[in-house]
Amino acid sequence: MTIETEYEPHVTITKKGGMGVTHGAVSEYTGFVHVKPGTAPQLDAALKRFHERFRKAPMSKIQQIGLQDMRHVIFDNGTRMAWILAFDTNWDNYIDDAIAIMGIEHWLDFLQYIEEYTPAAGTHGKSIKDFLQSAQSLASGYSRAFPDPSIGQFKRALEVTKAFDKALDQPGAVEALKNPALKPLLDLASA
Q: Residue 134 contacts by C-beta under 8 Å, 6 or more apart in sequence?
């Protein structure tokens, strides 16, 4: 079996954005930090609150910041945490908006349990951004099944599909689909 590759993942390292591997239009952020001793349960609860807030945020705002996915994982018997993100383009383009949308207090709610984040660094967006860059580790590899579509392109494809399905339910749809100009849509819909 031969696998053709269109894209070669590459590393983008900038002073502004840190380091991250990209695949197509998407870049990753991977950070590893130490949990303050004995605070893993509190960190776990704070991360659950953070993700609950994230899920309640207006998805249109979340989608505007280009965040495709996010996860936090506490590991090594509660002594370490991984933070893994995927963004449209470089995460640096969106982090200020992400901090504003979520609210600084929700970031600080869980960051207080991370050894590498010190309140002396400040409790503002720049301190969080600086922390993220300092905690970032270069991924050895990063691949996506759909490397090109941005969130905007995903949204547009879903909107077109929904509109097409709605059109198919209309009287006269069968007759309209006989138009040769619509054959590519019909072929795609029946695949």
A: 116
Angle at 47 between CA 45 and CA 50, to 5 degrees: 115
Whole-angstrom CA distances from 105 to 49, 67, 108, 111 are: 11, 20, 5, 10
Looking at 3.40.920.10, 3.40.50.300, 3.30.70.100, 3.40.1110.10, the CATH number of the domain 10-135 comes to 3.30.70.100
What residues contact 14, with CB distance under 8 A and at least 6 apart? 90, 92
pTM over 0.85: no
Q: What's the token pair of residue 191? A: 């695949």
Residues in the chain: 191
Contact 117, 131 (CB under 8 A): yes
The yes-or-no verdict on residue 112 having pLDDT over 80 is: yes
Q: Are 21 and 142 in contact (CB under 8 A)?
A: yes
| Cα atoms found within 13 Å of the Cα of residue 11, Cβ hemisphere only | 10
Chain segment 136-176, per-residue pLDDT in tens: 998 899 898 888 888 888 888 888 888 888 887 888 877 87
- Among candidates 88, 94, 132, which has minimal Cα distance to 111? 132
In this prediction, residue 44 carries a pLDDT of: 98
Structure tokens at 165: 């399905």
